[in-house]
From TrEMBL:
A GO MF label: NADH dehydrogenase (ubiquinone) activity
Taxonomic source organism: Methanosphaerula palustris (strain ATCC BAA-1556 / DSM 19958 / E1-9c)
Record Pfam families: Complex1_30kDa
Tree of life domain: Archaea
Source lineage: Archaea, Methanobacteriati, Methanobacteriota, Stenosarchaea group, Methanomicrobia
Name of this chain's protein: NADH dehydrogenase (Ubiquinone), 30 kDa subunit
InterPro entries found in the cross-reference section: NADH_quin_OxRdtase_su_C/D-like, NADH_UbQ_OxRdtase_30kDa_su
UniProt signal peptide: none
The entry's keywords: Ubiquinone
Annotated NADH:ubiquinone oxidoreductase 30kDa subunit domain residues: 27-95
Amino acid sequence: MKTEEQTTEVIEVPTLQKRVKEMLDQGYRLVQIGCTNTGEAYEINYSFDKDYHFVNMRIVIAPGTELASISSSYPGAFIYENEIHDLYGITVTGMNIDFGGTLYTTSIAHPFGITIQKKDE
């Protein structure tokens, strides 16, 4: 069984909208958006597919960084973006459907968010 090569391109936040639009224009579909708390930052992976060829774009952001929605290019992205907001506390601006923090009901706000602890001086 042959395994298809998957590429991962690390991009900067300001180029996200442009790169996503390029993927749409080339006929790629959005497969998923996943977020991971790395301890000091958030790694967000956008996965696209065309004819069984996967392309991943990765951005790494610091806590407090706002992220622009890609729902103007991929309308279904709103569900991933609301999830990222509710579970990680990342502000996503311009979503086509914004649940306002109510997609998930959790006992604590942003359970997968980065906790910054201040050291006692």
